[in-house]
Amino acid sequence: MPDPRLKEAIEQHQDGRLPEAETLYRAILADDPDHAEVHGRLGDIAYRTGHFEDAARLLHQALQRQPEDPAIWKNLVQALMQAGYADDAAKVLEEGRRLGLLTVDPGTLAASHSVAEFSLDAADLPTPREELSGQDPDKDGPQR
Fold it and tell me: Which pTM does this prediction carry?
């Protein structure tokens, strides 16, 4: 049975009451630290409030728990770009494409539903020279 706090947190999130939503999301994570959706939604809040490194960390955690969700991949690329980690963004984009989860052109990449509006410009993405390294940004931080 879904946690009833999740519905309330999502409503608060959608209404722009981000601090209240964040509090509920964190309470849910305290009880269920592997809740992919909550990690993703906290990543969205961090993104919307300008905490791009936190957004990237949270979205990476969501991706580890739900790697088949293309929206998480897109949102992670955007958070990495905003945080100044263009090389990592390019690697995530390339890996998502390789797995068939990101099929859009980087010039038109925009979040499908959760990250604030931001479009990647293809000129901002360096040509990736290697696949995603598998480094754990939670432990080691994103590579620059």
Answer: 0.71
